[in-house]
Amino acid sequence: MSVSPTSDPVSSLREAVRAQLQGGQMAAAESSCRQLLEHEPDDADALIFLADRELARRNAPQALLLLNRAERAHPDHPGVAHQLGNVHLASGDFDAAASHLQRALAAAPHMFLARLRLGIALEQLGRAEQALAAYFMAVRSAQEQGRWLSDATTAPGLRESVKYAMSYANAGRRRLFDAALEPLRERYGRSELRRVDRALAIHLGLEPMPSIDPRQRPLFLYFPDVPSQPFYPRERFPWHETLEAAAAAVREELLGVLAGEQPLESFLGVDDPAQAQSMLRGSDGHAAAWDAYFFHRHGDRYEDHCAACPRTSALLDAVPLVRIRDHAPEALFSVLRPGTHILPHRGVTNTRLVTHLPLIVPSDCALRVGGQIHSWREGSCVTFDDTFEHEAWNRSQFTRVVLILDSWNPDLTEAEQAAVTDLVETIGDFNASCELPAGPA
What we know:
- By secondary structure, this protein is of the alpha+beta class.
- The protein is elongated.
- Strand 4 and strand 5 (300-301) form a beta hairpin.
- Strands 1, 2, 4, 5, 6, 8, 11 and 13 form an 8-stranded antiparallel beta sheet that branches. The chain has a 5-stranded antiparallel beta sheet with strand order 3-7-12-9-10, with no helix packed on it.
- The two termini are 34 Å apart.
- It has 16 helices and 13 strands.
- Helix 8 crosses helix 9 (159-188).
- It has 2 domains: 9-171, Serine Threonine Protein Phosphatase 5, Tetratricopeptide repeat, CATH 1.25.40; 231-411, Jelly Rolls, CATH 2.60.120.330.
- Keywords: Dioxygenase, Oxidoreductase, TPR repeat.
């Protein structure tokens, strides 16, 4: 390859390498990289590529020489650390591989190939729990970036490793989650948790989702073999009467909140306007706003709010809320401002249902669940399965408020409720341990 004497040779060589790699001209790209190093001896990308070529020839010592050179010049470069980990992995030095790969991921957490290789190293070191997390995070991160969804989205040389990682992650999570359920199997008997076992198999993709109403699609956990319906008859919930009898007292405390004695917050809790617009729409010149005054959220109790509304708080304590650490209950005054439309969406699981106690309901406000429209009536409870597609709107010029709370699906037994509680907590703990920081891939 010749470089024009009037051009910048470094820029020209880098452009040549990019073009050659895109065209699959590996030998030409290798030659261009060697020329580039004559001008820029510490160019990280060239050194990484040449090291990769040496490793492909099973020349690990030469690959290490190139990468050590790159590391001296670029000690914080995640790509250099990644390739050092890869070379040590190929050489069987799993401790060194894990150390370099962890350093690479500390700088660039979304490098899913580095995380896959970390899983291999950790497994070889006998660190099974850490390997499980690494494999799971690698696959999840890749799929979030549109990769490893199928053979077509996986590089041919990686397909077997990716399939192994998926199998390892599924088997490991199955063991972990099964262990959480075992004490309850011993207490209640295995037959009593048959449906929970099926729910777990569906969640892990080990059993296909059964044929269900197309309007229903849980985002997290589907519980099989229970009757599914958008709205539930009120006779299934004797405690509706308790809520309705207290509606006037609850409304009085609500009015104090709306008068400004206590602050409200956005229900969605997102800072990105585009994300909010995907959930809400305004009309008639009104800006969309869905506010909330939480008594419980994700299992956390808002003590100040409960103290400010003691009768409402006591009422919530008296009804059978779902209680799952870090997940439930969720109980709040839901404040839908004039002209706001909550767009169609679905909930996470059919193991629990949502109840509304309407407190302030102007005309032209409604809830649609599974295509069925319900018009709220002040003081009259309604319970529905939010895994059915649902939406709500306030087309009036006034604010609409309902008290929202979640309760167990009444078709689950006591044993199943206990098992779902332990299972969801364990899944949540595992997922939280595998969280990647937000940021670019």
